[in-house]
Amino acid sequence: MGRGRRGGSKRGNFKNHGSRNSSSRGRGNLKNKRKFNKNEDRKKDAESDNKRQKLQPEKESEPLVEESSSSSESEEEVKPYTQLLSMFKSSNRAQQVLTSDEDESEDIDSEDKSEEADSRSEGDNSSEFGDEEMDEEVNEEVDTEDENDEEEERGLHGVQEADDVEEDDEELDNEEHEDETEDEPSGDEEEMGSSTDPYHLHYEREMSESLLEILTSPKPYETQELNWKALGRMVIHLPAKADKKTEKPKPVLLGESTEKYVIPGTMPILKTGVPLVDYGVKSQLCANLDKRPLSDGSTQTAEELLSPLQHELFNLANEYRDIYYPEMNHLNIDEIRTVYCLHSLNHVMKSRDKVLLHNAKLKKYKENGQSTDDVEFRDQGLVRPRVLIIAPLRNSAVKIVEKLASLLLPAKGQIINKDRFYKEFGEEKDEEDKKENKKSYKPEDYEAVFTGNTDDSFRIGISVAKRTLKLYAGFYKADILIASPLGARTLLADDFDFLCSVEVLVIDQTDILYMQNWDHVLHIFQHLHLQPREQHDTDLSRVRLWALNGYSPHYRQNLVFSSVALPEAAALFSRRGTNFAGKVRVENVVLPSATTVCRVLVQLPQAFHRFPTPTAAQSADDRFHFFTKKILPQYREQLMSNTLIYIPSYYDYVRLRNHLHKEEYNFGQACEYTPDGKLAQVRNRFFLGKKRLLLYTERLHFYRRLTMKGIHHIVFYQLPTFPNFYPELCNLLQDAFQNPKYRGDGSQTCTVLYSTYDAQRLAAIVGSQRAAEMLTSDRPVHLFVSGGS
Questions:
Q1: Domains of the chain listed by start with CATH number
Q2: pLDDT (tens digit, 9 = 90+) per residue, 10-50?
Q3: Which of 730, 725, 731, 723 is nearest to 767 (CA)?
């Protein structure tokens, strides 16, 4: 249906009316006409109200027919999830017409305004018509942006329910509506490299039955090895015996003639000399990533915009492979955050543009009077949140949000609720903390982790627009969720539906999460992709079929970053993810030059005792029996006083403490729960020799990095989780920290217990090659001597 300048549709009149208001300055004739025809305008308004009352019943009846057809089609196509559909049946009718209802109200308002504009224009002269047409041409683009703003408000996901914990004021919502005036889908979103775009290949296709059987089998992956320059040795996990034969395609109603199945992951290939835009990255993100003045980010290659480590990591992440990278440190952590923030924003923006594009098409069909019964767009999940970032501390959340803002927002971008965010997440130091930092020296890695707000209970939702980043969005209105394990778990007791459609999961600083409470992380994984208990205003006719069928775990991407190789994190990575795109685990050997045993400066004999154990589950009991029978009796002698026993596990600490109480040893105890006053008293008694033994936990050393003085002998009940802790503690045996009566006697000793299941910790301390020799040697004891002149 064509639309003329004056007489066509109601919407055309609405545009003219808006143009007249926007450019009415200097039109004295128009203002005078309104004064003279004031009484006549009131009559016209009354007539338009009557017309609107007549039109409303007809408008309300239209979506009901559309709803019945769409609901019947969704029930036929999603038979495996009939339970989910039946649960939402009662509210499905109202929610499926959510967008159309808002369109209806908008059309009624526009009719109102159009009729009022027509009534006013009857008294205008012909010159005003010419001015009006000119105004319409000038403001055509502005009106289009206004329509797109309305699309953003009502159709980005169809979710309008705010989370009770993170709900904002009405003023903040109004701010968002006023600020987001730039949101519109990119015109080439549908056709942009659909055959090569990783997002389209991963999420816009269904999964074949043969691939589903492989991923749900006991051994779904086959392993291969690959070496890249920056990442080093990688173990690639690919779906085992993937059936490359595609089943007979069936016609669909998504604008394509056939429906394709996802392609199982293949060996990764490092792309070189390719512009970052050709990776499928939004040009806006490329431009913000390139900070050089007068440079064109759209033509810069990935190697020019990213470091070698970033280039290789992004090459893997952009293909939606799972990644486990255990070599993060305080020097490269900013590079790694840039990679996963860039990937997360690119994923959210692609998903958002896809939804907006489909909303615009549906709206166009309705404007042209075309039927939408045979048109179906599946572009969403069961809820809106798509990206979940798990971080340990609030200072980490601040750095992540700042990285997101620097990549997304241009010079005129806006962060909503920025002041509130920095007030709650910003750095807060007391005067006592400042004095303590001045007195004692802390290592660089400690300062990097514990500088700023170190609260470990938080959660925040972030909604992403083209030039706006809104913080403190409700969890069901947010695109990205950033939470600590503790902050998420306190919310999971009441509601876990916000985790049912997570497509990209990032675990940052996994080693710190391990020091907090690893059970919280496992608890989050147990609540991923569960069947939601409520609908949360979701339009089920727009939900992807693989999400309705319960296949979301096979589409989720897991990105795990840690500074040390943790067996618990490796087990979580291998068991809790079945991504059909494959997995990549970085496993580099520890060279002799990178070992931490070489950093021991004091002349110290170090005896490594290997104890036998058949299984990992039984290793804790075997370690305890070996220590209490072979090692501990030696320290009853008077010469073996001032012995510090380093214990990584709190459970082992409690067990050993009870044993020492039972055997009536003279010992002190220092753990993360010991009050400061009692801790100072125990440290003083140990230094003076009044306590022969001191139990010292790893978590206390991690959070406090205390300089324990008076250590003459040290026993590692188990190798430290962090390899740099080993030289830190061994160097405390130098004369500067000794009791005066022990200085210069050279009788200090170091004893270490290990088993075959401590291979990763042992390799990080003594090197991979030497660790393999120690684990396979016939001798159970190995002696190292370091330091000296």
A1: 219-240+260-366+378-436+443-586 (3.40.50.300), 592-785 (3.40.50.300)
A2: 333 333 333 334 433 444 444 444 444 444 454 445 454 54
A3: 723
